[in-house]
TrEMBL record:
Name this polypeptide is given: hydroxymethylpyrimidine kinase
The Pyridoxamine kinase/Phosphomethylpyrimidine kinase domain, residue ranges: 19-255
UniProt-listed InterPro entries: HMP/HMP-P_kinase_dom, PM/HMP-P_kinase-1, Ribokinase-like
Annotated EC: 2.7.1.49
Cellular component terms per the entry's GO annotation: cytosol
Record organism: Entomomonas moraniae
Length: 267
C-alpha cells in the first residue's frame, strides 16, 4: 500500500512580472525552480503585454495587492529563499524592501529586470537608481547582464570589471552575465566584496533567447534554497541555464524560449 508522508520541498517566494507568452517572468521562475526540485510561490508584481518579439506595454500592480500576496504565503509557508524579477516602478522597489526587511535571513536573488530580451523597457522612473541604492544592499546576489550592469553603474561603455567595481560598494555578490557580448565563448563573471572573482565560461549558442535571465536567477534561488554554497550554486545554475538554451523552442516569431523542464517531466 502506498504511503505519503507529505514532506515538502524548499519553497522559493518569487516576486516577478507575468509574461503572457510564457517565455520569461513568473512562468520562467516556476519552471526553473521546479527543475531544481523546489516549490515556487509566485507573487505577481506586474502584468505585461509582450510576446517573443517585444514588450508592448506593462502595468505594475498596486502595492497592497503585492504585499497581500507575499504575506499570505509567508504566514503559511516556511520560505527558504526569495527571488526578485520585474518590479516596474519606484513604489514597487519600496514595497519589496518592506517584505525583504521582515525576512532578513533568507537568501535574496535580485535579477534587476530593466529591459526585455527584445529591447523594450520594463521600468518607469529612475528605477535603476532605486534598485542600486536601496535593494542591492539587501541582496545576497544580483544577476544583471552587462547592459543592465552598465545602467545600474551609470557607466554606458563600462566593462564588466568596471561596473563591478562600482556596484560592489552596494552588493555582497554580483554575477554579471556575458551573453550580450559577441565572443564565441561567453564569460559569466562572479564577484564579491572581498575581491574574489570567478569566471564561468560556456559556448555561445546561436540565436536570441527570451527569459534566459529569469531562468538563471530562479535556478540560482532554488539552489540557495536547497542550501548549496553560493559559488557552487552559481555554477550549477549557469550549467542548467545553458542546457535550457541548448534545448530551446521556437513557439513564436521572435526569440527562442528556454526548455526549462525535461521532456519526460510529467511522464
Amino acid at each position: 500500500m502506498s504511503h505519503n508522508n507529505y514532506t515538502s520541498r524548499p519553497i522559493v517566494l518569487c516576486l516577478s512580472g507575468h509574461d503572457p507568452s510564457g517565455g520569461a517572468g513568473i512562468q520562467a521562475d516556476i519552471e526553473a525552480i521546479l527543475a531544481q526540485n523546489c516549490h515556487a510561490a509566485p507573487t505577481i508584481t506586474a502584468l505585461t503585454v509582450q510576446n517573443t518579439v517585444d514588450v508592448i506595454d506593462f502595468k505594475v500592480l498596486d502595492r497592497e495587492w503585492v504585499l497581500a500576496q507575499a504575506n499570505a504565503v509567508l504566514k503559511d509557508m516556511s520560505v527558504s529563499a526569495i527571488k526578485l524579477g520585474m518590479l516596474g516602478n519606484m513604489e514597487m522597489v519600496d514595497t519589496i524592501i518592506e517584505i525583504v526587511k521582515e525576512n532578513p535571513n533568507l537568501p535574496l536573488v535580485c535579477d534587476p529586470v530593466l529591459r526585455a530580451g527584445g529591447g523594450g523597457a520594463l521600468g518607469k522612473g529612475d528605477i535603476a537608481y532605486a534598485i542600486r541604492e536601496k535593494l542591492l544592499p539587501l541582496a545576497t546576489i544580483a544577476t544583471p547582464n552587462l547592459p543592465e550592469a552598465r545602467i545600474l553603474a551609470e557607466l554606458p561603455e563600462g566593462s564588466a570589471d568596471e561596473c563591478a567595481e562600482k556596484l560592489l560598494s552596494y552588493c555582497k555578490h554580483l554575477l554579471i552575465k556575458g551573453g550580450h557580448e559577441s565572443d564565441p565563448i561567453i564569460s559569466n563573471r562572479l564577484y564579491n566584496q572581498q575581491g574574489e572573482r570567478h569566471i564561468f565560461t560556456c559556448e555561445r549558442l546561436p540565436g536570441n533567447f527570451h527569459g534566459s535571465g529569469c531562468t538563471l536567477a530562479s535556478a540560482l534561488s532554488g539552489r540557495l534554497a536547497l542550501g548549496e554554497e553560493l559559488v557552487s550554486a552559481v555554477e550549477t545554475a549557469l550549467s542548467y541555464t545553458w542546457r535550457t538554451l541548448r534545448d530551446a523552442e521556437s513557439p513564436g516569431h521572435g526569440q527562442y524560449i528556454p526548455r526549462r523542464l525535461p521532456l519526460d517531466f510529467c511522464s
